[in-house]
Specification:
Elements lengths: L1 E2 L2 E13 L5 E13 L1 E6 L4 E6 L10 H13 L4 E7 L9 H16 L6 H9 L5 H6 L3 E4 L4 E4 L8 E6 L6 H6 L11 H4 L7 H4 L5 H7 L1 H12 L4 E4 L6 E5 L17 E6 L3
Length: 275
């Protein structure tokens, strides 16, 4: 069985407080994009995990695909499988690649072994693996809140728009990014309403609260965002806690990152986003 776990981008991301359990509360719009890994799961005589592409964790048991299997192995006494992961989505980029891999692994195991779990049940198991994982079970545009585990479908479309995601070779630690939030946001207008305004208003209406820290640590990220606007993006932002920067355009732009330090090593994904 083969699947293609996809990335997401954050259209607006606000850190709104900190809970008693130490988790922060957020508000964001998660939007799926067809920048994908490749995951294959097949029945096997013994458990096996192998990855290729961008290096992942050295210890297979630390990989979220393996953790997804172990969770269901314990709950449902699953037989062994072999798992093969082609990793294209970089870690530490704010694109949710690892969370997507985990959610897709759960969905594949559910189908492969006919567990008959509902979307809601899969979402509950996914939440045990990470806050972003339940989103990828549903995998449509959502307003995400709480610590990231609560979500509602939102009516936002980028149909016909061209998206560019720029991933410099910078890994931003999410916990460190949260520790450097100096002030919590309070939205006067609910985020689902803001994103339903005309797209040309997004630049002035939306922000990512992690940009102040990330741009201060890595000025090249601010340069990339400015460059995407210079090239005609109607909205550009960092995704998640970084370090990827995306721009949304009316048509394919002509881009050249040769003038950026390390620009030749940037990983670039671009294409039209369905829906």
């Amino acid at each position: 069985m083969l699947s293609f776990p996809n990335a997401k981008i954050n259209i607006g991301l606000y850190v709104t407080g900190k809970r008693d359990d130490g988790y922060h509360t957020i508000e964001s719009i998660f939007f799926p994009v067809p920048f994908t890994d490749v995951l294959e799961i097949i029945p096997s005589d013994s458990f096996f995990f192998e990855s290729a592409g961008i290096p992942v964790t050295e210890n297979p048991e630390d990989n979220l695909c393996v953790k997804a299997y172990r969770l269901f192995e314990e709950k449902f006494d699953l037989p062994p499988v072999s798992m093969f992961l082609l990793k294209n989505i970089p870690a530490g980029a704010g694109l949710g690649g690892g969370s997507s891999d985990a959610a897709f692994a759960l969905k594949m195991l559910n189908n492969l072994f006919k567990l008959d779990l509902s979307v809601g049940q899969l979402g509950e198991y996914a939440a045990m693996l990470g806050s972003d994982c339940p989103f990828f079970v549903m995998n449509y545009p959502c307003y995400v809140f709480g610590r990231g585990e609560l979500m509602e479908a939102v009516n936002v479309s980028l149909k016909g728009k061209y998206t560019v995601i720029v991933c410099p070779v910078i890994h931003i630690n999410t916990a460190e990014a949260y520790r450097n939030i100096r002030e919590y946001s309070k939205l006067n207008i609910p985020l689902p309403y803001l994103v339903q305004r005309d797209l040309e208003f997004w630049k002035e209406s939306l922000q990512n609260d992690f940009e102040n820290y990330a741009f201060g640590q890595y000025p090249v990220l601010a340069r990339i965002k400015g460059y995407l606007y210079q090239k005609g993006a109607f909205f550009a932002s960092m995704s998640g806690s970084g370090s990827s920067i995306f721009g949304i355009f009316d048509q394919k732009p002509e881009l050249d990152f040769g003038g950026f330090k390390g620009g030749k090593s940037f990983l670039i994904w671009e294409g039209f986003v369905p829906g």
